[in-house]
Structure to design on (769 residues):
C-alpha cells in the first residue's frame, strides 16, 4: 500500500497526489512513469512521475478524471492509500545543457514536462516553456513551471489567459520570430520537448518539422504491465514497432506514427464507457 | 501387488484395470465457462488408479521427473489410503503438487517412462499427484485451516538470498532454499505472485485459488514475498548485494512477446498472446465489467501458433463468446508443440484447426482488424529442429474474416533486468548463459534458471532448474567457491 500524504485539486477533475514510495523515489528520473492500481480487480494505469523527493521518499503524480480507474483514484483522499505503485518504469529523459530548449505542455501533459524542464534547467539549458489548457481555470502547475523556466508562455483555447489558441499555434509564431541568419528555417532553439494529448503532440511535430527542430514527445499509449511483457503499448517509430513502456516513453516526434497511436488509444473506448457508466450508477445508488 | 520376484516387465500383464479416465466438464458446456475442465479424481478413482502401479523394483518413472519425486512411494501410500503421507512424500521434492498435477506434461516425462505404457497405458501419475494435493487442500479448507509448512514454525536463520521472479523456477528455488534454512526474499514485478501460473495459464486449466494456496504454503516457509518490484529499475543487483544478499537467483521467465513482422500487426484487435492472456487471467478481463480491465471479445478470432499458449488463447477466446475460433498453424498437427491433451480439449470445444496455413498479412478497415490473409503450406524435408519444414504453396492465399488476432508464436527474454547487469553473459538468443546443472552465470553470486535461460519451456523444467540452483547456491554460500 502506498499512502497519499497530500492531495491538491489543481483544476476541475485534475488532482495532484504526493505518494509515499521511498524505493521508487530513490531511483526515479525525469521522464519515467509508474503503473498504479487503485483497488483489487482494478486496472493497471500508467502515470508519469511529475516530481520526486528522494529525501522524503515521495512521488508527485497528477491525474485527470477521464474514466472509472481515474475516478477511483480521484475518490481517494489524503491519508488513503493506493493499492499498487510500480516503478520507476521507462527510460529517463536525456538531460544536458542543450542551449535553448522549448518545453511544451498541454493540459495534464504539463505535469510530466515539469521534471524534465527542471532538470534541463539545472543542467544549464535555457528553458522556454509553453503551457496550454482549454481555459484559464483548467491550466495547471503554472507557478511550478514558472519557477523552472527562463520564459513562460501561456496559451488557452478560449483566450481567457495569455495567447488565444493551441500551443502549436503559439509555437509556430515563436519559431518564426526566432529565425536566425543564413539558413531560412534555422532558429536559435536546439530542442523541443512536447507532452500532452496525442493530437497536440502530432500538431507540435508538424510545426517543428520544417524548422528541423529536434522534438521529443512522451507517448501515452495503453499499457498493461508496463515492463515489456505484453506489447499493448506498441507504436510505430521510424517504421519500426516499438514498445512505449521499455523503448520509450520518449521518442523523436518526427518519426512517430501519430495516426496509429491515436487509433490504438481508442481500442477500448466503448468498454471504458460501459465501465464508467456502471460506476457512476453505482455511485448514485450509494448516495 | 508388490511382486517379489521376476523382472518389472514380467509384471505388466498382471494389471487388468484400464487407466482410470479423468472426469471432465462436458465440452459444450465448458467451452462457454471459465471453470476448470478436468474435475479431478474421486477417492475411488484414485484408489483404483493407484492399484494399477506394479511398484517396479527399479522405477523408471522417477528418472522421468525433472524434480525426481518418489513416485513409486507416493502411489503406494495412496493404495494404503495414507493420503497425507503421500502428499508429504511428493512435497519432499515438489512444493507445487496441485499445480504440477495439472499442468506438467506427464506424457513426456514420468508417464512416458512408466513400464505399463509398453503394453498398456501408463499409470496416471499426474492425476494421482493432483488428487492427493487437492484432497489435502480441501480437508484444510473444510476445517477452516491454512495449508502451512511444519505448522508454520519453520524459521530461516541462514544467509539472505534473493530470488527474482515468482514463477515456477523462482518459487521452487525459494522453497528449497528455505528448507535449507536460507532467508529468502522473492521479488515479483507484477502485483501478484506466480508468474506464468497467474498471468499465462487460464483459470479453466489452473484455478488461481489453487496457485494462491500453493504460494501461501511457500510463505509459511518463512519466505518473504515482495510484489511490485521491477528489478533493474527499483533495485539493481548491486543494491541487493550491498543490502546483504549473498546470492541472487534470476528466474524472470520468457516475458517478451514475438510478433511475425507481417503487415497489419499493429491494427486494433491484434494481440500478443501475453497481452490477451494477461488481460484475461491476471486482470480478470473475462469478468469485465465486474472487473475493470477490458478485452476485445471478437466474433471471429484467429490464433496464430501451435503451442500450449496458442491453445490457451484459442480456448479463452471461445469462452469469451467467439462464434469461430481459428487456430492457424504452419505445420501439421503432428508437429504441434502443444500437449496432446490440450489439442484434444481444444478440438472438443470446437476450435477450428487450420493446420498447414500461415498468415501473410492482416488486413484492416479504419484501423481495426478485418481479415487475415493466409497461405497454404506443405511439408518438405526435415529442418534443423528435426521437424519437416513447412513450405508455402504458391498462389494458395485466401482471406478469413476475423476481428481479433492473437499472436502465440513464442516469447523471448525480457531485457529489462538482464541489461542492467554488467558482465552477464547471454547466449545467441539473448537468454542468460547459465550452467544447466548449477545455474551459475558469468557473474559471481548470480544464478539463473527457468525460461530466462532455456527460452519458453515447461513449468516442471523451470522447477527442476530452480531446485538444482538452490543446491548450488547452498554450496556456493558454504564454500565461497565459484
Amino acid at each position: 500500500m502506498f499512502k497519499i500524504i497530500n492531495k491538491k485539486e489543481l483544476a476541475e477533475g485534475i488532482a495532484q497526489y504526493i505518494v509515499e514510495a521511498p524505493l521508487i523515489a530513490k531511483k526515479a528520473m525525469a521522464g519515467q512513469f509508474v503503473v498504479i492500481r487503485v483497488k483489487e480487480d482494478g486496472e493497471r494505469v500508467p502515470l508519469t512521475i511529475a516530481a520526486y523527493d528522494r529525501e522524503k521518499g515521495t512521488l508527485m503524480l497528477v491525474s485527470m478524471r477521464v474514466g472509472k480507474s481515474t475516478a477511483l483514484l480521484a475518490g481517494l483522499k489524503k491519508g488513503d492509500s493506493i493499492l499498487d505503485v510500480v516503478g520507476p518504469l521507462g527510460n529517463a529523459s536525456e538531460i544536458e545543457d542543450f542551449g535553448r530548449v522549448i518545453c511544451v505542455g498541454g493540459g495534464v501533459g504539463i505535469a510530466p514536462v515539469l521534471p524534465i524542464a527542471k532538470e534541463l534547467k539545472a543542467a544549464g539549458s535555457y528553458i522556454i516553456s509553453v503551457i496550454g489548457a482549454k481555459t484559464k481555470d483548467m491550466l495547471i502547475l503554472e507557478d511550478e513551471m514558472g519557477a523552472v523556466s527562463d520564459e513562460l508562455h501561456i496559451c488557452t483555447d478560449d483566450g481567457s489567459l495569455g495567447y488565444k489558441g493551441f500551443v502549436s499555434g503559439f509555437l509556430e509564431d515563436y519559431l518564426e520570430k526566432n529565425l536566425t541568419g543564413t539558413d531560412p528555417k534555422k532558429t536559435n532553439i536546439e530542442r523541443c520537448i512536447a507532452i500532452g494529448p496525442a493530437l497536440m503532440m502530432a500538431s507540435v511535430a508538424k510545426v517543428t518539422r520544417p524548422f528541423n527542430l529536434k522534438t521529443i514527445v512522451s507517448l501515452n499509449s495503453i499499457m498493461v504491465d508496463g515492463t515489456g511483457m505484453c506489447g499493448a503499448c506498441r507504436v510505430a517509430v521510424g517504421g519500426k514497432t516499438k514498445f512505449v513502456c521499455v523503448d520509450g516513453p520518449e521518442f523523436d516526434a518526427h518519426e512517430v506514427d501519430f495516426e496509429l497511436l491515436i487509433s490504438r488509444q481508442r481500442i477500448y473506448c466503448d468498454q471504458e464507457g460501459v465501465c464508467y457508466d456502471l460506476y457512476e450508477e453505482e455511485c448514485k445508488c450509494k448516495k | 501387488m508388490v511382486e517379489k520376484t521376476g523382472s518389472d516387465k514380467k509384471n505388466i500383464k498382471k494389471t487388468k484395470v484400464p487407466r482410470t479416465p479423468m472426469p471432465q466438464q462436458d465440452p459444450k458446456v465448458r467451452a462457454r465457462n471459465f471453470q476448470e475442465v478436468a474435475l479431478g479424481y474421486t477417492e475411488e478413482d484414485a484408489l483404483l488408479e493407484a492399484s494399477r502401479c506394479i511398484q517396479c523394483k527399479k522405477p523408471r518413472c522417477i528418472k522421468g521427473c525433472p524434480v525426481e519425486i518418489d513416485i513409486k512411494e507416493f502411489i503406494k501410500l495412496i493404495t494404503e489410503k495414507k493420503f497425507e503421507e503421500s502428499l508429504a512424500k511428493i512435497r519432499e521434492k515438489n512444493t507445487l503438487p496441485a499445480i504440477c498435477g495439472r499442468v506438467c506434461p506427464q506424457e513426456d516425462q514420468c508417464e512416458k517412462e512408466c513400464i505399463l505404457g509398453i503394453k498398456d497405458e501408463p499409470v496416471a501419475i499426474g492425476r494421482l499427484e493432483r488428487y492427493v494435493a487437492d484432497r489435502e487442500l480441501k480437508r484444510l479448507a473444510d476445517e477452516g485451516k491454512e495449508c502451512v509448512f511444519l505448522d508454520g514454525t519453520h524459521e530461516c536463520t541462514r544467509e539472505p538470498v534473493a530470488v527474482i521472479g515468482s514463477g515456477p523456477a523462482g518459487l521452487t528455488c525459494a522453497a528449497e532454499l528455505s528448507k535449507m534454512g536460507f532467508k529468502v526474499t522473492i521479488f515479483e514485478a507484477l502485483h501478484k505472485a506466480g508468474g506464468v501460473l497467474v498471468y499465462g495459464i487460464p483459470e479453466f486449466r489452473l484455478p488461481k485459488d489453487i496457485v494462491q494456496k500453493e504460494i501461501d504454503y511457500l510463505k509459511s516457509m518463512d519466505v518473504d514475498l515482495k510484489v511490485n518490484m521491477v528489478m533493474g529499475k527499483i533495485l539493481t543487483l548491486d543494491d541487493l548485494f550491498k543490502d546483504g544478499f549473498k546470492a541472487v537467483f534470476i528466474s524472470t521467465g520468457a516475458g517478451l512477446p514475438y510478433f511475425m513482422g507481417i503487415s497489419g500487426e499493429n491494427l486494433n484487435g491484434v494481440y500478443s498472446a501475453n497481452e490477451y492472456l494477461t488481460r484475461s487471467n491476471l486482470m480478470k478481463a473475462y469478468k469485465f465489467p465486474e472487473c475493470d480491465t477490458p478485452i476485445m471479445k471478437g466474433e471471429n478470432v484467429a490464433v496464430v501458433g501451435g503451442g500450449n499458449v496458442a491453445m490457451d488463447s484459442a480456448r479463452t477466446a471461445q469462452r469469451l463468446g467467439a462464434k469461430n475460433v481459428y487456430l492457424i498453424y504452419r505445420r501439421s498437427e503432428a508437429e504441434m508443440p502443444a500437449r496432446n491433451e490440450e489439442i484434444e480439449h481444444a478440438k472438443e470445444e470446437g476450435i477450428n484447426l487450420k493446420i498447414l496455413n500461415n498468415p501473410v498479412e492482416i488486413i484492416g478497415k479504419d484501423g481495426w482488424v478485418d481479415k487475415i490473409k493466409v497461405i497454404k503450406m506443405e511439408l518438405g524435408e526435415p529442418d534443423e529442429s528435426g521437424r519437416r519444414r513447412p513450405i508455402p504453396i504458391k498462389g494458395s492465399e485466401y482471406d478469413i474474416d476475423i476481428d481479433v488476432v492473437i499472436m502465440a508464436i513464442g516469447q523471448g527474454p525480457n531485457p529489462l533486468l538482464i541489461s542492467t547487469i554488467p558482465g552477464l553473459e547471454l547466449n545467441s538468443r539473448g537468454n542468460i548463459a547459465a550452467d544447466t546443472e548449477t545455474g551459475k552465470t558469468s557473474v559471481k553470486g548470480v544464478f539463473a534458471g527457468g525460461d530466462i535461460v532455456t527460452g519458453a519451456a515447461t513449468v516442471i523444467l523451470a522447477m527442476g532448474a530452480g531446485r538444482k540452483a538452490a543446491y548450488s547456491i547452498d554450496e556456493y554460500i558454504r564454500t565461497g567457491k565459484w
